[in-house]
Every structure is written in structure tokens, then in C-alpha cells.
């Protein structure tokens, strides 16, 4: 290739905004590591035998399954108590409003915990934080089992929120460690199913337990589960943190883009010399620190903490960096979308007992708990839509775009959850208000809401991560912080809001919010790429690892 041709291609390629990547090798001629169907692997596995992306698919899936179950249990601990509210009002001499405050305090614990847990996990290892979360959950359940008044319950919710906070950041980062970009929606949607599954099935179990035993056994049984889980974590869970070359992905993309040019993919690939291909092999298959690596022993892989591949920046720098991302619209939008899903979830958690234990339903405690099965079934179906389907859709869209994937491709799939969520809110709220058959609010209302919550959550999280790949960790923290603050505010407001306006007016207001908020994806589908191009210079500045480091000279 002549220097003039090189310059022409390079000049065009530098106009690619953050998040635009070459995902599919349309002609099978690119000399990079690929998966099935000529899908280019992002990131490229290194030659280091300890790289999690070099683990067998079975091992990666088993490690992910353990993280998934851990997230499921912590979500359950935080949200199982809905069916018990009617009994606690009498036993604790309290009100639904005070119990709603406790729900809000749980979100406060989540939101604050996210900010502190993430830098700790990046410095000490994610396994260290998961073990700490399990220990805190055991302590929280022990405290909750001894509750004699609403104050105990408030304290339990705060501690349980802190214990569960890794569910809202580190588990997604672990998924990033274990899976490639084209698998990301499937992984994220599975984790969101763990979050909603624990939230939905916890009340079902609690209802049955409280119907046959004292409600304190809802806590004791969790402790019985957590103790062997902690042992399993100590002896089986492995650290997924792996430090990669800071600019490897950019250099890889530059080499890939040098082989193609817009609509002339095949012609451009033929112009690449064998020498250039050799350079690509060196780039994607090795780096100085990857050579001559020895596989870690069992006990090295199962230490209490891991610092070999930890973040070299100060804890304070890691803590502050997420807040620099408030100037990135894609990240803030994703936090808002995910946060408003907490509106609909809090609506169910805070009204479930009041609606179904009273006229005309008069459900027993265990039947009140069963009503969240509608949410869970919707969550499961939504997981398949927001995960495997969205991944498949993104690959197909990239194939139609000369192998180039834009993050906005995934946003087209937001249409279905937008419609379903609005319809579900009406069915749940109005069905309950008019005393319609329980199937209207449970099966239709909660089912549609559950579908929308799990699918839209996965879509918006993956969109933000793909827009600013090098700021994935910081993006997740800010998104989850925004989500939990929105959830906390709504949990404080929902009981007084319904008391003041009534269920019917509240339902119509939430319906309108749902259409406006979820429907805002249309704007980003239209202008998202232009916004990414506008933020490119800021992204390159903030993504420098030392950006925000105030008390330590960058080495």
C-alpha cells in the first residue's frame, strides 16, 4: 500500500467516534482472533495463561454461575420482606410510610456502597469484596432476626444495602472480565435477572415461611444458605481482574480499519502486506508482560485478596473518577433509564401488601408473596429478549453495516420494553384500583413490567459501556449511583404520593413518566453517534488513567 493510500484510510478512520468498532469480518480475511461466524473478539485474548478470556468456556460459565447466584441471594436479602409488612405494622406499632422509609434506606445503602465498594474491589480484588458482602449479609440477617421495632429494621436495610452494593457494580465488571463484547448483553441481562429474580422470588419464599413459622425464620434460613456459600466462595471462586495493555484495543482497531475502507472491505484487505499482518499478530497475541507467564497454583488463585493485576491508581482517584462522567450524556441517560425501572419495582414492593391483603382480594401472607411471580416470569422472558436477542440483533446490524457496529444499534430494541412497561403500569395500577380479577394486575401488569425492567436495564447498561469502553468501570458506578438515588427518592415518596393523590392518579402519572423516559431512546438512536463524536476529545482526556489523580505522581 502506498503512503498516500495509507494516509487516506487513516484520516477517515480517525473520524470514528468512541464506541464504533469493527465487529464482523465480512470476508474472513482479517488476521485477528475471531469467534464463530467471523465475529472479531473484543477484547482480544492475550497469550498469558492466567487471562480469564483464555479459560475454557465451561470454566468461565461456572465462575459466572457462582457470581450469578451470589447476586441473586444478596438481592433476595434486600427485598424479601414485602409480604410481612401487614404483620409488622401491628407487631412494630408502625405505618406503611415508615416501612417505605426503610425501603428507601436500603437504596441509600446501595448507592453509597457502590461508590466505596468499586475502588476497594479494583485495589484488593473482586473476590475479596464478594466475600466481605457475604459476611455483611450474615451479620445483617442476624440483626434483622432480632428486630423488635422499626429502628432495627431500618438498621438492617442499611447494612443489607451495603452488603448488596457489589451486585450493582462489581458483578457487571466481572461479566466484562469473563465475556467478549458480542456476548455482553447476554451476560448483563442474566445478572439483571439475578437482581430481579431475588427481588421477586424472595417475597414468595418469605410469604410461605411466615405462614408456617415465625417471620424470624425468613432471616435464619438465609444465614443457613450464606454459610456454605461463603465456604464455596473461599475454595472455588477465582479472581477475574486482569490488567491489559491500555491502548491495545485502539491499536487493534486502527490495524483492522487499515484493512478496510467503508464499502471496499475486500479490496482494502487485499492491500495489506504480509508484513503488516505479522505486525497485527504480534499486537493481538502478545505483549512484553504476557511472555513466559507461569500458571498460578490453586492457593495463589484462592488467596483472600489479589493485588497482582490491581489498579495502580490511588483509592481516592478511583473513587472520584465516576463523577467526571456526568458530562457524558450516554452514561447519564443510561443511569436515568435504569433508575426509573426502580420506580416500577418500588411501586410493587411498597403497595403489594396493602393491595392484596385488603378487600376485594383478602390474600393470606403466602399468597401476597406469590403475586410477585408475575414480575419474575416477565423478568425471565425479558432476560432472553434483552440478552441473547439483543446480541443477535447487534451482530446482524453490524453485518448490514459492512461489519461496523455502532452502540446505537442496540437501542432500536428499546421499542418493545417501552410499550410493554407503559401497558403494564396501567394494568397493575388501574386493575388494582378497580378491584379487577387478580390476574389483570399480577399476570398482565406485573408480567409486562417485569419484561420491560429486565430487558431495558440490560440494553441501557451495555449501551453506556460500549460507548466509552475504557471508562466501563466508572460508567457502571455512576449509572448505579444514579439508579439507586432515584430508587431511594421514589421509595420515600411513593406512600405519601398514593395517600395524597390516590392509586388511580398516581398510576396515570407513572404511565406518562414511563412513556416520556423510556421513549427518550428515540433521541439517542437519532443523535447518539453525533454526541459520541462531540465527546471524543473529552473521552480521550478522561480515559487517561492518571486523570483525577491528585495526591500521587503518575509513574
- Quick one: CATH class? Mainly Alpha
Order of helices and strands: HEHHHHHHHHHHHHHHHHEHHHHHH
Shape by Cα distribution: globular
The largest sheet is: 2 strands, antiparallel
Q: Examine the secondary-structure arrangement and name the CATH architecture.
A: Up-down Bundle
Rg: 24 Å
Question: Quick one: CATH superfamily?
Answer: MFS general substrate transporter like domains
What is the terminal separation in angstroms?
38 Å
Residue-averaged pLDDT, rounded? Answer: 82
Strand order of the largest sheet: 1-2
Share of helical residues: 55-70%
Overall number of structural domains: 1
Low-confidence stretches: 1-14, 268-292
What is the CATH T-level topology? Answer: Growth Hormone, Chain: A
Q: Helix/strand-derived class?
A: mainly alpha
Strand percentage lies at under 5%
**What count of helical segments does DSSP give?**
23
Instruction: List how many beta strands DSSP finds.
Output: 2
Topology:
Layout: H1 3-13, E1 21-22, H2 57-79, H3 85-91, H4 96-124, H5 126-145, H6 150-164, H7 170-178, H8 184-212, H9 217-236, H10 248-259, H11 265-271, H12 274-285, H13 298-301, H14 315-320, H15 329-356, H16 365-370, H17 373-400, E2 404-405, H18 408-411, H19 415-433, H20 438-467, H21 472-518, H22 521-534, H23 536-542
Antiparallel strand pairs: 1-2
Amino acid at each position: 500500500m502506498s503512503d498516500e493510500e495509507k494516509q487516506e484510510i487513516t484520516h477517515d478512520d480517525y473520524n470514528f467516534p468512541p464506541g464504533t468498532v469493527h465487529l464482523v469480518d465480512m470476508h474472513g480475511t482479517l488476521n485477528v482472533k475471531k469467534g464463530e461466524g467471523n465475529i472479531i473478539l473484543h477484547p482480544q485474548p492475550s497469550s498469558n495463561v492466567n487471562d480469564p478470556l483464555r479459560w475454557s468456556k465451561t470454566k468461565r460459565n461456572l465462575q459466572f454461575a457462582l457470581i450469578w447466584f451470589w447476586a441473586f441471594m444478596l438481592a433476595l436479602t434486600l427485598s424479601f420482606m414485602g409480604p410481612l409488612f401487614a404483620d409488622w405494622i401491628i407487631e412494630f406499632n408502625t405505618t406503611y410510610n415508615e416501612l417505605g422509609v426503610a425501603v428507601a434506606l436500603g437504596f441509600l445503602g446501595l448507592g453509597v456502597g457502590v461508590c466505596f465498594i468499586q475502588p476497594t474491589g479494583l485495589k484488593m480484588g473482586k473476590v475479596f469484596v464478594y466475600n466481605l458482602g457475604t459476611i455483611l449479609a450474615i451479620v445483617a440477617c442476624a440483626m434483622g432476626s432480632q428486630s423488635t421495632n422499626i429502628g432495627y429494621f431500618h438498621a438492617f436495610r442499611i447494612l443489607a444495602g451495603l452488603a448488596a452494593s457489589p451486585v450493582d457494580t462489581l458483578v457487571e465488571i466481572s461479566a466484562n472480565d469473563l465475556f467478549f463484547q458480542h456476548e455482553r448483553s447476554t451476560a448483563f441481562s442474566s445478572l439483571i435477572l439475578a437482581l430481579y429474580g431475588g427481588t421477586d422470588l424472595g417475597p414468595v419464599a418469605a410469604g410461605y415461611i411466615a405462614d408456617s413459622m415465625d417471620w424470624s425464620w425468613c432471616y435464619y434460613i438465609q444465614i443457613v444458605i450464606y454459610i456454605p456459600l461463603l465456604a464455596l466462595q473461599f475454595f472455588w471462586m477465582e479472581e477475574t481482574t486482569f490488567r491489559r495493555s491500555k491502548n491495545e484495543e485502539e491499536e487493534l482497531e486502527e490495524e483492522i480499519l487499515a484493512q478496510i475502507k467503508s464499502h471496499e472491505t475486500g479490496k482494502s484487505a487485499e492491500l495489506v502486506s504480509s508484513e503488516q499482518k505479522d505486525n497485527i499478530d504480534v499486537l493481538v497475541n502478545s505483549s512484553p508482560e504476557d511472555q513466559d507467564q507461569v500458571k498460578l497454583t490453586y492457593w495463589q488463585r484462592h488467596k483472600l485478596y489479589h493485588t497482582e493485576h490491581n489498579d495502580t491508581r490511588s483509592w481516592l482517584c478511583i473513587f472520584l473518577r465516576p463523577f467526571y462522567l456526568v458530562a457524558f450524556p450516554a452514561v447519564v441517560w443510561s443511569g436515568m433509564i435504569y433508575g426509573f425501572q426502580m420506580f416500577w419495582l418500588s411501586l410493587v414492593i411498597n403497595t403489594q401488601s396493602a393491595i392484596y391483603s385488603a378487600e376485594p382480594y383478602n390474600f393470606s401472607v403466602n399468597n401476597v408473596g406469590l403475586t410477585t411471580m408475575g414480575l419474575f416470569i416477565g423478568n425471565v422472558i425479558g432476560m432472553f429478549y434483552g440478552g441473547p436477542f439483543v446480541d443477535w440483533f447487534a451482530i446482524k446490524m453490524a453485518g448490514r453495516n459492512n461489519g461496523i457496529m455502532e452502540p446505537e444499534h442496540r437501542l432500536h430494541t428499546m421499542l418493545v420494553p417501552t410499550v410493554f412497561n407503559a401497558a403494564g403500569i396501567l394494568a397493575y395500577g388501574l386493575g388494582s384500583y378497580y378491584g379487577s380479577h387478580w390476574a389483570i394486575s399480577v399476570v398482565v401488569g406485573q408480567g409486562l413490567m417485569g419484561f420491560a425492567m429486565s430487558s431495558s436495564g440490560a440494553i441501557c447498561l451495555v449501551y453506556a459501556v460500549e460507548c466509552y469502553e475504557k471508562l466501563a468501570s466508572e460508567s457502571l458506578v455512576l449509572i448505579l449511583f444514579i439508579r439507586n438515588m432515584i430508587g431511594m427518592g421514589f421509595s420515600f415518596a411513593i406512600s405519601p404520593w398514593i395517600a395524597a393523590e390516590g392509586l388511580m392518579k398516581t398510576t396515570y402519572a407513572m404511565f406518562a413518566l414511563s412513556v416520556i423516559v423510556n421513549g427518550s431512546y428515540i433521541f439517542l438512536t437519532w443523535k447518539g453517534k453525533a454526541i459520541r463524536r462531540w465527546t471524543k476529545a473529552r473521552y480521550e482526556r478522561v480515559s487517561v488513567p492518571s486523570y483525577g489523580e491528585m495526591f500521587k505522581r503518575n509513574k
